[in-house]
Structures are given as C-alpha cells and as structure tokens.
Design a protein that fits this description.
250 residues, single chain, mainly alpha, 8 helices
Length: 250
C-alpha cells in the first residue's frame, strides 16, 4: 500500500517548486510575494489559475505567454521538476516519516537558495531564515543532535564566514564574500554540526572551483566575476545530508 504521506509529498512538490519560483523571481527585486497576483514579466498580463498549473501549463503553452507569446523562463519548469526529484530523494532515503518530511523541506529550501544565487547572486533573507529555523527545529526533534550542537555548528559556520568576509575586505579593499553566504552558513552549520562542518565547506569550495573551471573551459571571461558560492554550498549540503541519512557518513 502506498504511504499517504509519501504520496502527499509527491503531489505537493510541483506546487512547492512553483512557489519557490515566485520567491526567487520577486524577492531579489523587492516585490510583494503575497498579495500581488502572478503576471507575465513581458506584457504585465495577470495569469489565471489554468496558467499556473505546475508543469502542465508550461508544456501546454509550449513555454510561451498566451497573451503576448513571449518566451517563459525555462528555470521555472526546471524548479518544479527538481522539487519532485527532491521529494523522491526524501522518500527513498528516509527511514522514518519525520526524517522524510525534514529531508524534503531541507532539500526544497536548498533548491530555492541555490537557484536564487545562481540567477541573481542573492540569497534572500526569507529563505536563509527559514533554513535556520528548520535546522533548529530538527535539532530539538526526537533523535536530533540537540539545540546546543546545532547552535555551535551555526556559530562556527556563520562566524567563520563572517571573519573571512571581514578579513578579505580589510586585505583587498573589496567584497569577497556576500553577507548572504554568512547567513546561509548559520542554517547549514546548524544542520551539519561542528564535526561535519569542515567537510561541508570543503565540498562547497571544491564545487565552486569546478564551477569556475567549467566556466573558464567554456572560454567565458572570469576576471573578477563572482562565483555563486552559495549554490556550491547548497549542493554540498544536499550531498552531505543524503549521505548521512543513507548511512554513508556513519
């Protein structure tokens, strides 16, 4: 028999991906995400409910606005699909319902933060705050590491990145690490704890270096162009957590 909670996660995940798309599109612009109805960025037309059915509306409209025929951003579709994949990973890798729910929520938040940093080089406070709150709640749940361990990991993660940000600015006279990355590390550090934190940061640094090498290989001009380190950290955190729940880190 199909687990009703697993089925619920799969059914709700496209809508979660769609909502993440709204947050990622509006928060960096400083726009309202609650009261303003969805609209086309090109012509400003308000979208109707049948325009907002996750995945199906995009496919049915062939990726174009039905009012002005302008192309819709494909990452909106990718987010909805990725949210389903995140729910699938949560279902497959978790050995209990609480772990499954936390894993799904954790991966969804990481997905939103990673895409936001990739597109905008911004990590919205709403998402980093939700991540930190979720991490603290999980630490106090049955079987969690405990609030003390979570706060220690958060302090080491955010504090270390804040020190790095201040030191770089003092030495180079320029921003080398965004404040959003510092806030992100509060949540990631709370989940990783003090013992897995070094591996998480090392994984993020490795992914960031690989990202830069791929960009250089594609003959893009790096120069002083910033690399979305938050995206790399989110990917590293997702791999760390999935390794933990599957027993690979035990």
């Amino acid at each position: 028999m199909t687990d009703p909670i697993s089925l619920f996660l799969l059914l709700v995940s496209p809508a979660v991906g769609s909502f993440l798309g709204v947050l990622i599109d509006r928060l960096p612009r400083g726009e309202n995400v609650v009261s303003r109805r969805s609209f086309c960025r090109s012509c400003g037309a308000q979208l109707q409910p049948f325009d907002l059915v996750p995945i199906l509306s995009f496919v049915w409209a062939k990726g174009r606005c039905r009012h002005c025929s302008s192309s819709l951003s494909p990452w909106l579709l990718y987010l909805e699909i990725a949210a389903i994949a995140a729910a699938g990973f949560a279902i497959i890798t978790s050995d209990s319902t609480p772990t499954m729910l936390f894993t799904a929520a954790f991966l969804w938040l990481l997905l939103g933060l990673a895409v936001s940093d990739l597109l905008w080089m911004r990590l919205p406070n709403v998402l980093t705050g939700l991540l930190f709150g979720l991490a603290l709640a999980w630490s106090m749940a049955v079987g969690g590491a405990g609030i003390e361990v979570a706060l220690l990991g958060a302090g080491l993660g955010a504090g270390g990145f804040l020190a790095l940000r201040i030191s770089y600015r003092a030495l180079r006279g320029a921003e080398g690490l965004g404040l959003g990355d510092v806030k992100l590390m509060a949540g990631l550090g709370a989940v990783a704890g003090p013992f897995d934190l070094p591996a998480l940061v090392l994984g993020g640094a490795t992914i960031g270096i690989l990202f830069g090498l791929v960009r250089h290989w594609r003959s893009e001009n790096l120069g002083r162009q910033a690399i979305p380190f938050g995206t790399a950290l989110c990917l590293s955190a997702a791999l760390m957590w999935l390794s933990r729940v599957t027993g690979l880190l035990n």
